Amino acid sequence: MSSWLIGGRGSYSCHVQAAPSSHPARALGDAIVPAGVAVTLIGLLGDLLVHTLNPEGHAHEPLIVLGRGNNPWHLVLFFGIFLTAVGGIRWAGRLRSDWAAMVGAGLALMLTATVALGGFVGWREARESSQAQPKLAAATHIHGAAAQPGAASNAAAVAGDGVEGAAEFGGHSHGTAGPTTQAEAKVLAQQLTAAKTASAKYRNAAVARADGYVQVTQFIPGLGLHMVNLGISQTTFDPSRPQVLLYEPRSSGGLRLVGIGYALQTLGDTSPEGFAGGSDVWHFHRNLCFLPDGSVTIAPSAAACQAKSGFFQARTAWLLHVWVWKSNPNGVFTETNPQVF
């Protein structure tokens, strides 16, 4: 750039050196790009870490990416973050300075950790989902003492027999498991998927209460805390409309959905026709007293229960527990779940 000064005896030119192309404000603006990428990766990495280190405590939270059942747009988000991170790494490499090399290395490390943890969490959830399917080959349900050959279907159990016992629930009866064909197993898998999809929103217990579910039992190890919706018909079986939800308490407070249940009324002592095949084993309880505080106990008579302001049931409907939200090593339809405690 030049300017001309006119005066005195002649004209003189004064040359001013051009300013350098780089400017502190521009450099700061450029730094926002890798900073934003780093913050995004830190947030994503932190989310994956809490799901990895405490999967049950964050089971109600949808994963940002790569998790089972996620919005497919989350995968687009992940791919966009990946491309942005690669661009940030290349940008840092072009600066050819020590600090830029450190920034690029940090971005590369966080990107690698994010992809690795995302893939691991997705793989683990897929594995847990497959483990939650019923163990059809070992579907026979054994309650209390070992089942005797030729035991009659729907025979009444001796009061106090089995893990529940007379002290908690009195005498109750079970159906008997039967065979499941390959065709029935295919239908069963579809029914369980429908049941899990329909109950997913009830991982939030507040949503369950808003939909009409009320607490009717305290938390019982192996069985869970029961919430029942009396507005759902007990005469028709629909896998996508469970009458019962099973919860366990979280160590940090609140409730975690671990299973669902069905309650059906039938004529006589014939257990309901529920899921496809013979692996679903139904049961019922006797002499239950449901108390106003949401707990249940046994009572010798209706009068004794009413004296506690409770609701007495001499015999419940046929009941079925389905452990679709917390795998049961003894089978998806086994009444008690040793992992619920």
Can you describe what's shown?
This protein folds into two domains: 31-131; 136-142 and 165-322, no CATH class. Helices cover 34% and strands 17% of the residues. The protein is built from six helices and eleven strands. The protein has helices at residues 24-53, 73-95, 98-131, 182-199, 205-210, 302-306; strands at 2-7, 10-15, 172-174, 214-215, 225-228, 244-249, 255-264, 283-290, 296-298, 311-315, 318-322. The protein has a five-stranded antiparallel β-sheet with strand order 4-5-6-7-11. The longest helix is centred in the middle third of the chain and has 34 residues, at 98-131. Mean pLDDT is 74; it is low at 1-16, 65-71 and 131-173.
The geometry reads as elongated
Helicity level, as a percent range? 25-40%
How far is the N terminus from the C terminus?
A: 81 Å
Q: Structural class of the secondary structure composition?
A: alpha+beta
How many beta-strand segments?
A: 11
Q: What multimeric state do the chains show?
A: single chain
Structural domain tally: 2
Main sheet characteristics = 5 strands, antiparallel
Mean pLDDT: 74
Q: Order of helices and strands, N to C?
A: EEHHHEHHEEEEEEHEE
| Beta content | 15-25%
Radius of gyration: 32 Å
What would the keywords be for this entry?
about 35% helix; 5-stranded antiparallel β-sheet; alpha+beta; about 350 residues; 4-stranded antiparallel β-sheet; 11 strands; single chain
Write the layout of secondary structure elements.
Elements: E1 2-7, E2 10-15, H1 24-53, H2 73-95, H3 98-131, E3 172-174, H4 182-199, H5 205-210, E4 214-215, E5 225-228, E6 244-249, E7 255-264, E8 283-290, E9 296-298, H6 302-306, E10 311-315, E11 318-322
Antiparallel strand pairs: 1-2, 3-8, 4-5, 5-6, 6-7, 7-11, 8-9, 8-10
Helix pairs in contact: 1-2, 1-3, 2-3
